[in-house]
Amino acid sequence: MTEIGSPVAAPAAPTTGGEVSQFDNTAAKKQWQVILKRFTRHKAALVGLVMFVLLALFAFFGGLLWKHPYTETDRRYLPPSGDHPFGTDRLGFDMVAQIIRGMQFSLQIAIFVAVLSTVIGVVLGALAGYMRGWVDALISRFIDLILVIPGLVIAAVLVRNSFVASVAGGGGSNWLIVALYLGLIMWLSIARVIRGMVLSLREKEFVEAARALGASTFRIVFRHILPNTVDVIIVNATLAIAQAVLLEAALSFIGLGVQSPDTSLGLMISLNKNELTLHPWLFFTPFLFIVLISLSVNFIGDGLRDAFDPRQKRVKA
Amino acid sequence: MFRYILRRLLISIPLLIVASFLCFGLVNAMGDPLGEWKLQKPRTQAEITAAYDRTGYNKPFFERYVTWAGDFVTGDWGESVVPGNAGKPVKENVLDAFSVTLRLILGAEIIALILGIAVGVIGAVRQYSIFDYTATGISFAMFSMPLFCVALVLKAGGIQLNNWLESLGADRWIITAGPPGDGFKGSIGEQIFQYSGAYVLPTICLVVIQFALYSRFQRASMLETLNADYVRTAQAKGISQGRAIFKHAFRNALIPIITVSSLNIGANFGGAVITETVFGWSGMGKFLIEAITRIEPYEVLGFMMVTAVFIIVFNLIADVLYAVLDPRIRLD
Predict the structure, then answer these.
(1) CATH 1.10.3720.10 residue ranges for chain B
(2) What's the complex ipTM?
(3) Which of A51, A70, A191, B200: disulfide with A125, CB 3.0–4.6 Å?
(4) Of A153, A157, A250, which has the smallest distance from its Cβ to B146's Cβ?
């Protein structure tokens, strides 16, 4: 199922000479090489990957190279110019420097969330699917519980509660709290998917063989079952990055997200929401960078899904 | 089937009890609802004691919960407690907000579902055509935009449109402050004018995200059934292409999206927080935000009970529909 790929992504069309021999060798190649090959043929995904790497480099190293430090002020509300390509904001800070810093926080949060939610979701999902019985019932009811309790209440407790804030690092820095919150909310879907996959994988012959050989539960789950779900895990983790960037922005908008002295692209947009008509660059530059990040990540995730999917080999009807 | 539904509903009663208790605890952890009021200006000890007495906040946490739960079962959902806003009945307010949200999301959900299914099916049948690429591009762009930005841009655009209409001598059309509280007035034509002005932007906003989700999902499941062996068998038997697509592939491709959309609709009864905030609709989302901001324990609980019932019921509907539509799946 190619979601957006060009026809080039379908490997069943060996038209040029060089392609034929490569295609014939497919079986002899290692699986990950085949996947890599399919991924690199996916144009949109490659563009996405390049774009994402450039954005990440810009976010984490751009500050070292850019002439204006993020603490320096100039005149307020300068429109975009050669000296300030994205203009200056309502306090006179250079927007390029602000974007770099905001993107740094946004990416930091998103990657933290992707890792955290994937680890929790995979471990709990695999446990529920493999152990079944009361473990499964417990984990499933826990998921129901989180679905039913309004997420914003949990967010408000974490953001407001002074005890939580002091544990997570003083000085008013709260990006970690927001990241924790998102990570604790977003594992539900991956846990459900992994549970379903493990439920069917545990009945397979190779698992039975491992069990007959006396492998421990831990070994069966982590060495034999989970490697068969790695495609779903990687695709989900990738897409979680895009989701986290957008959710963090939405939280900032309703005042339950990242707060000063930390910043993020979402916070920048919501602080500038009233500048939309008078000083549009203040609103649209962080907006543009959010869209670029999530678009590139979505393209990568899509390309990965196609690269992992063996049904790619089938000729389309 | 009946026993399954009954069992699921019975299981959800303890779930609701645990969830409401946890939720009450979470609101408690946000702080004292009277804390801010106490600091606004010097209060006498008598005033403070009276306020705590009235709200029941002089009693321990557990006792407060049991009192609330007992009242709730008999139909009394409690009152708001924060002074300045105290004494408002929670039940009426939640149900008002719920009717606003219902009106807002129902139409948007139906439009998004029909559009999403249609575009997804065409995209799958004509895979890699210009239509498919355009639809894919649009839904990816929609997926990648923060919704509140879309809403803010739409709102700014609506105001521009109004100014332009005014400069032409026409009436302002777009309403960005929610539907009029006392209903639509005037002749039928005027009512339609007001109605569309209030609904058009929030509906677009809600359709945008739902459509992206549904069309991608429908396209994927349609591709799956189009490539299935039974569709190829049907084609080999010599039935027409249209019949193979609609009778065999399409009907089966509808099963997953029915599940996804009913889960989604269930969750949406919790209100479209961002759309409601931007366009000034006092629906569930806005109600919750305000209750959290003021720290209103009973309002949050009332909100939770209403949305929880819908989440549970629509989860159940999704599972039952799945089993009804796909005979291979057995409920038990």
Answers:
(1) 95-150+206-330
(2) 0.87
(3) A191
(4) A250
